Predict the 3D structure of the following.
Amino acid sequence: MKNLILSTTLILSLCLFSFQIASTQPTTKEIKVEAPFGTTKINVPDFSKCKKLIITDFGAVKGDKDKTTQAIAKAIDEANKLGGGIVIIPEGEWLTGKIHFKNNVNLHLNKGALLLFSDDPNDYLPAVHSTWEGLECYNYSPLIYAYECKNIAITGEGGIKAKMDFWKKWAGRPSGHMNSLKRLYNLSGQNVPVEQRIMVNDTANLRPQFIQFNRSKNILIEGISITNSPFWTVHMYLSKDIVVRGLNIFAHGHNNDGFDPEMSQNILVENVTFDQGDDAIAVKSGRNPEGWRSKTPTKNLIIRNCTIKNGHQLLAVGSELSGGIENVFIDNCKVLDGAKMFNLVFIKTNERMGGYVKNIYVHNIKGSKVDFGILGIETDILYQWKNLVPTVERRLTPITNVFLKNVSAKNVQFISRINGEKELPIKNVYLKNVTADTIQGKEKYINQNVENFNVRK
């Protein structure tokens, strides 16, 4: 009888424990987003029933980088062990090193909370599986990093900020940097395993991304403010089912794109304010052999209701696009007066990229003064790579089906400038009610090697 009571008690305890674990797990909900290319379904995590874990309970101390870094890691580990949890950053400034996600974790910043990230490169070691401008390598960890995670989120009314004193030195391309880029390019072209492409040394000086979610899914980033970034600000790599909503991004350093989806799919970006030193939204899909091997396009990307205070382009496509880019819809966005912008939409590639671009829809965009034009398409953009390495394998990029409707700017040099390749003309470009108050140049439409170019009121 005594053994029976003990067994019953043990079973009940196990059942209760299982229930507690199950009850803390995040659920997922499906968002359906309509676009000209069809309905995109996106699964995002819901942590509303998960346990809250405050970092001070794990030893975080304001101003103590090591204790706070360790506390956040412990809280993330505990949330993961529970099956799901919300790691709370309370009000105040918290100096920290790198943050690495695990499955089923929501990093939540309370109002008035600020995570201030160190700019000591040693705080982002050991090296992790990452990327540099479309080439995979082992590099310094992104400041916030996830690898092969699911159900992850960053939410709240607080902010994250990168200290920049040291990263600025690397932005100036110190001695040896270009040779290291050349070495990485050749390692990729020779299909050397990524584990052997170690770029953490005295000469590479490859700045890490602020946020990189790598090979992950069911992602939510909502509400927070982001200030500064060593490199690209929010980078989604080989990931899917992503919602980025209500962010306020200010990053005016070198290569400070706002949002870079790369070889990623099923993405919604809405109600984000971009104030960038580079492109606001830069859509990518790997460089050269990296994209060709993966055969994973960036696909089903919807951007809506965003505000751009600054940025080289509102929407850039490429130049790293070797895996292909298709089904991009940007709607109801505005560029504020005083913004420093080159083009509203810029599609860029070169003879080495291959890949493809198709089904780009741009609707209901209001611009201000633009240095160049509303639409630019260039097929010979190489930047620093032009003289760094030769063309090893020539692959042109087919570009088809680009639609602009109800797009305006106040002052431009031209409405569109499209430079295609004679061997592979750009096909099917439609402009409907695309206007500018003032056109400085002699020609509205500057086209070379384009088939089926249509303009309508």
Summary: Confidence is low (pLDDT under 50) at residues 4-22. Helices lie at 2-24, 65-81, 167-171, 177-189, 289-294, 385-388.
